[in-house]
Amino acid sequence: QVQLVESGGGSVQAGGSSRLSCVVSGSTYSTYSMGWFRQAPGEERVGVASIDNFGATNYADSVVGRFTISRDNAKNTLHLQMNSLEPEDTAMYYCAAQEGKVDGLGLKTYEYKYWGQGTQVTVSS
């Protein structure tokens, strides 16, 4: 059973930064494609950033130039560095994992099998 545990959420002022982490259980983390998603109240869960098992990354247009996804395979950890945060970034953030390389950009929920419980990020103006 693969387990994902997010951390690092909290409250931050607009223009500030925050770093999310996701620790993945199991010994085959390096073979997974990973993604960060977010869901605001009353809205669908949408992809923010992805990184495949070869290290290729993709980003939603709304976060390009502000967010950076990275992975540390030695520590089974995924990160999301978020800079220049805006109130519109307020949401529950989830990490997701899928064995192997996903077929698409890794920004769709159906591309992932395993999900974390989420961590809240609140950006105040």
Overall pLDDT level: 96
Give the number of DSSP strands: 11
Low-confidence stretches: none
Structural class by SSE content: mainly beta
The run of helices and strands is: EEEEEEEEEEE
Which sheet architecture does the biggest sheet show? 7 strands, mixed
Over all CA atoms, what is the radius of gyration? 13 Å
Shape descriptor: globular
Provide the β-strand percentage band. Answer: over 45%
- What's the assembly state of these chains? single chain
Separation of the first and last Cα atoms = 40 Å
Count of DSSP H/I helices: 0
- Helical content (DSSP H or I, runs of 4+): under 10%
Q: Would you spell out the secondary-structure blueprint of this structure?
A:
Blueprint: E1 4-7, E2 10-13, E3 18-24, E4 32-39, E5 46-51, E6 57-59, E7 67-72, E8 77-82, E9 91-99, E10 114-115, E11 119-124
Parallel strand pairs: 2-11
Antiparallel strand pairs: 1-3, 3-8, 4-5, 4-9, 5-6, 7-8, 9-10, 9-11
Please outline what is shown here:
The chain has 125 residues and is mainly beta. Helices cover 0% and strands 49% of the residues.
